[in-house]
Amino acid sequence: MSQRGGFRGRGVRGGPRGSGGGGPPDSSRGRGSPDARRGGAFGGPGGGRGSPDSSRGFGSSDSGRGGRGFRGGGRPPRARAGVFMSGRPARVDDRIANNSDKALVASFRTQGRQDPDEMPLRPDFGTAGTEIKLRANFFPVRIPKDVLLYEYDVAIAPAAGTSTRRVKRRIYELAEQTPAWKRAGLLGQVAHDNSAKLIAAKRLPEPLTIKVPYYDEDEQGPPATGGKEYTLTIKFIQEIDTSCIEKYTGGDPQYRNFDILPVISALNVIMASSPGRTGVVVGRNKYFFRDAAAPFSLGGGLEALKGFYFSVRPAHHQLMVNVNVCTTAFYVEQNLADAMIEFRNATFGARMNAFCKGVRIRTTHLNRRRTIKDVSRFNAKQFKFRADEYGKDVTVEEYFKRKYNIQLRRPEMPLINVGGKDKAILLPPEVCFILPDQPFRGKLSEQHTANMIITACQPPNVNGEAIVNQGLNRLGFQSPGAVLQAFGVGVGQEMAVVPGRILPTPGIKYSQNNSPVIDAKASWNLRGVKFAVGATIPKMAVLVIKDGRQRDEFAGANDPELREVVAGFRQMCVTSGMRVGEEPSYVEAHLPAKDNNDPMRKGAIEKIRQALLTLKPKPGIVMVMLADGDKAVYEGLKHLCDVFLGVATVCVHSSKIKRKSPQYYANVALKFNMKLGGVNHSLSDPSSVRWLNAMLTMIVGMDVTHPGPGSAKGTPSIPAVVASIDNQYAQYPGCLEIQETKKEMITKLKDMMISRLEVFKNRNKGKLPDRVLVYRDGVSEGQFNIVLEEEYPEILQAFRKYDKPRQPYRPKLTIVICGKRHHTRFYPTEESTAAGDGNPRPGTVVDRGVTAVYHFDFFLQAHGGLQGTTRPTHYYVVHDENGFKADQIQGLTHALSYMFSRATKGVSLVSPAYYADIACERGRCYLRKLLHGITGDGTTTSGSTSEEDVMKEAVNLWRNGVHNDIKNTMFYL
User: Fold this and answer.
1) DSSP state, 390?
2) Are the CB atoms for 827 and 83 separated by under 8 Å?
3) Best CA proximity match to 491, nearest among 511, 467, 510
4) Exposed end of the chain (fewer CB within 10 Å): N or C?
5) Mean pLDDT in the chain?
6) What is the pTM of this model?
7) CB 711 within 8 Å of CB 947
8) Which residues of 184-216 are buried (b: 16+ CB within 10 A; e: fewer)?
9) Contact of 665 with 623, CB cutoff 8 Å
10) Which one-letter DSSP state was computed for residue 904?
11) pLDDT tens digits, one per residue of 243-300
12) Can you tell me the distance from the alpha carbon of 27 to that of 391, in angstroms, rounded to the nearest whole number?
């Protein structure tokens, strides 16, 4: 049934950043209230970013929590954690053991003065700490010396209809079967990316075109007449000389600034030739194999598949390939109607477009393959069209009964559109079957994410074994195929062994110089100590949320149990060194029931607003007793209080604080103290304190968060800049902005830096910092130079605002980029140097063997893993006027990882960058509607509103940003 015009539906896919989204108020990412399982202030494990990994995709996460409520999702079997390859001898790679890398770094000092616009060369290697040996998930790549590769561009004509990866892959698959492909000498001699790049082992004849009669996988062959035909035009681009690899990795000074990317890209294409044919490709360099491991049900119509990632990387005197395990969500191969119902039941406010758009299906009544364009607003009972064969208008339900003798069982379900732009073709979901091996590209729900973490979180010995056994085999690296052989490429089968060090545990102190004992997991407790600087709790209010969860909620504002709990919490604040003022005010908000027509729960937020406006005078801080983990309520409340009301809030779960746990009270107190301007703890680490106190220093954290899948098209990106204002490096007020969508560089960085310098100046008796140390999160390796070209000048412009006649203001500036989205993992080689779960111990640092050949970088794992395989953070110094040595910057970064004020443990991302990350997440609360693909009055969605209108709505939602009353505090914690 076809219909021209306006029944094509609306396309949206759902939300926030990354694979995991923003996290519920009490999630393991800690985006809201402190959870007892995170904080650990009194004896439990410390909270904090033990697991930003879980939020950044599922390579091998080291945190998470289990989930409930999805059928079929039982916990997968998990092997006992242990040391990978325990008992096997491990010898540091000869290329490192011979100290040639140290000789290379020493030679930099004799090569003359470096261009200040270049990234700094490595000054030395670190020596602090206990020396250890680690396996790294890198394998040597062998390529013939002085071999030329030939790069070609492939143009596909006509271009119409070839935008999807599936179609391009099919075109190449058919092209390789043509006689012309073989005649041109391409068979077994070329590798391609199924798109526009082709690498050949020899020079190809030109001009070269391949004609490809097209037909789909479910068709026997091209139609006799009228079928599609594509033409591949293969055009020579350049010769690639592989001899440059040896010179670059060997440290030849003439190759220091050589662009090695074309060679690396070519080798990645070559090495993808085998898994690209046998696996399902997801994103860049991730390959999934259905028969590699049994899928794990995530519920809601999705399942998790295991796969492997690889990427070719240069290292000292060796080209390497980085191989890691990965996990992603796929659609369950099943009836579409069943899947839609599962998805709808899995999440409140679930939108079908988020689930269905782009899915390939097979129709059961005609056995044809189609792609879902969107989901219609009509169901089979409602939608009528002209059926010429019956001479009248009929509903879809009637048509299927008369035409196919199919009585629809679910005619009330929305129809799906499998037509084109100009012609909608609407089908009932129950006559559609989801085809296998399709990754889910939307935003995972909270429960999907929790279940994903369960299956992705495997201990290091399990992941290591999977890499060396299954991974190398599945990726075609154990027995090279024809293409690898044609290029002479081989992969070593032993993981690299590199030197590492375990840094000394940084010292921290509380009031009266009390220093707690830090355990082997980098955590401590607050027994017997008071905050370094206790804040004063001004007029406090308690808001009780009533949302139909009678078992978990307090009875109301006058509930004696509530008063007892609040009194217990206030006593904990006193015990912790805070000053507590008058008795709090109490108010309650009865929220309207959840309604699928109001997924953002605007009605609930309005009730909360009305309740808070009854508080006179305005309180200094509000303790919010949440009924449950409803993200819509949490995010809406933060938007309301941060932007419109200008009041600090701390959210807790009623069911958890009811337990009257001193640990939970203490976790909440950590946040109260910081939001009110106190200092929880400070550094007593001698070397770090010495460096920080030598000159007036400001430490800055920066990050940018982007709209995720399913956001309204044009939804802005949100940058955050936080900066220290005291000599204890504890308080980091921050500022937020909105900027053009998906732009990584910070557009208004000059103004944001000026605002941070102003706050610093006001808190330091008119003095500006003599040094500025920036930790920049969220920049991919390919954008490091853009930071120098675009953001560095903006920071300098901010400094120039404070120039005086003949006295320019030029603080010494260092910029360090922090990376978590990488696939490097380290495995201890001995039980004696490993943590109890087989992971590296907290404080493990690596700067040799698998780091940059010339530049100044290192990997640091400051935290103790919670579960799974821990992921270190990659720190890369891209600008340095402070003359840091390796031990200085590594030790300082390690120490600052213990200054995350919301936790009593070392965290995996240096605290200023982590604060910027959290501030970005808070900004997402203000644009939550757009991030969920909802625009206007909520009846339109991401496919039907212009980007200009979306930006206007974002500006309206953003208002003037954070309210003046709280903008110079750590409101975002």
Assistant:
1) T
2) yes
3) 467
4) N
5) 90
6) 0.91
7) no
8) bbbeebbbbbbeebbbbbeebeeebebebebee
9) no
10) S
11) 999 999 999 999 998 999 999 999 999 999 999 999 999 988 999 998 888 999 999 9
12) 58
